[in-house]
Amino acid sequence: MRRFARVALLCLGCGVCSLLYGFSQLALSLEQEPGGGREGQARDPGARRQAGAGRVAAGSAGRGESGAGRCKNLSVSFWNSYWMLPSDVCGMNCFWEAAFRYDYMRTHPSEKMHLAVVACGERLEETVTMLRSAIIFSIKPLQFHIFAEDQLHESFKDILDDFPYEGKVNYTLYPITFPTESAAEWKKLFKPCASQRLFLPLILKNVDSLLYVDTDILFLRPVDDIWSFLGKFNSTQIAAMAPEHEEPRIGWYNRFARHPYYGVTGINSGVMLMNMTRIRKKYFKNDMTPVRLQWGEILMPLLKKYKLNITWGDQDLLNIMFFHNPESLYVFPCQWNYRPDHCIYGSNCKEAEEEGIFILHGNRGVYHDDKQPTFRAIYEAIKNYSFGDDLIHSLLQPLELELRKTMHTYCGKVYKVFIKQLTKSIRDFYTRRSKGR
User: Fold this and answer.
1) Can you say how many angstroms the Cα of residue 435 is from the centroid of all Cα atoms in its chain?
2) 116-143, pLDDT tens digit by residue?
């Protein structure tokens, strides 16, 4: 009887192994079909493909990683049985690599954070500095979506391909595109390219969530932290932004706007976190028709109705939209979009005073003139920092010396709020490194 049980168990084991081998060969055959190897194509910095109306270039910053090769494409969640993996995820040794995948994914979170920016004119250096700030402290992998004028594409590729953070950073370059029938009107709205952000949910159809930022943004803590607000959205919220002003007495919208705007002082769209799946599905209330309209349907009618009454272009249109749909907006504190207005008339962002600045927004061109040297000092420090150098001796300490020189200005008087969070981010960075994370 025992001998029979052993034979049956042996046969069962052989059958399972044969089944697993069959699935492995099936996965391999699928991978080798024409069109397979998508990751290799996407990671080629020179690859270009047709997307919509224009050219798209995809690339991966940094050098390739040995060992993790095929199995590090994190298009699956924390764990999937190897026979369920797509052909571009794993190669011919799927069965054995499954164990390696488990260890890799346990220490490398699978969720990519998608960050978009629109760059035109002389914004190359500013955009690259913003991207550098996003890379320095972030934990999860980053996917950059860079919308830029054609003449900037090669410069972006040359710079980003030299970034040393392989596996952590990928990017895709897109042309500036607007709906054909109304392209001229959108291009001249506020500033060239500014309104491109309104069409991101329609262009990036396969992206579920996205963080859009202006080129003059600097991250002083991990992108992961603002990304986490997506998990705080209730069932009706589709986007998150910060107020335009904290102090109504110096607010622009409540004093000068000739159109509806959100809340007491309006919202600033320089940092905009979006659940784009929800945006694409939502039907928006509006003051043009009793019928609710989807995102792609409402933009042009809004522009036609208000184009003579708006000053700040696409940001004004967003204010109008969320005025009629306030339940759809999550408002995060001012320290997530800290601008000169928060200190040039005296400090008025209490959250930044208590916890420091999380995201710096150098609008009004303050990174490039001497009007607000505190903002410029932060920008220059991050721009000149070399990846891999000691963050304390090469970034934080020289920066603090420069900030002390700005104490004759209102913003300089509160210079410590500019480095409070930065100091913590650097400390956390080295703590993670010491633990091998």
Assistant:
1) 26
2) 999 999 999 999 999 999 999 999 999 9
* CA–CA dist 264, 248 (Å, integer): 7
d(CA 169, CA 405): 35
**Count of positions (residues) in the chain:** 437
Give how far Cα 4 sits from Cα of 8, 17, 293, 349, 383, Å: 6, 20, 70, 78, 73
DSSP designation for 361: E
In this structure, are residues 379 and 367 in contact, taking their beta carbons and an 8 Å threshold?
Answer: yes
Structure tokens at 76: 């699956």
Residue pointed to by tokens 């760059």:
119
Alpha-carbon gap, residue 94 to 23, rounded angstroms: 10
Task: State if pTM tops 0.85.
Answer: no
User: What pLDDT digit, counting tens, does each position of 403-414 carry?
Assistant: 999 999 999 999
Q: Report residue 155 as tokens.
A: 């410069």
Give per-residue pLDDT as tens, 240-259: 999 999 988 888 899 999 99
Residue carrying structure tokens 């759809």: 328
DSSP output for 220-241: SS-HHHHHGGGGG--TT--EEE
- List alpha helices for 228-372, DSSP H: 253-256, 276-281, 295-306, 314-324, 350-355
Dihedral (CA of 188, 189, 190, 194) sign:
negative
**313-317, Cβ contacts within 8 angstroms, sequence gap of 24 or more:** 313/189, 313/190, 313/191, 313/194, 313/195, 314/189, 314/190, 314/194, 314/195, 314/197, 314/198, 314/269, 315/190, 315/267, 315/268, 315/269, 316/257, 316/259, 316/261, 317/195, 317/198
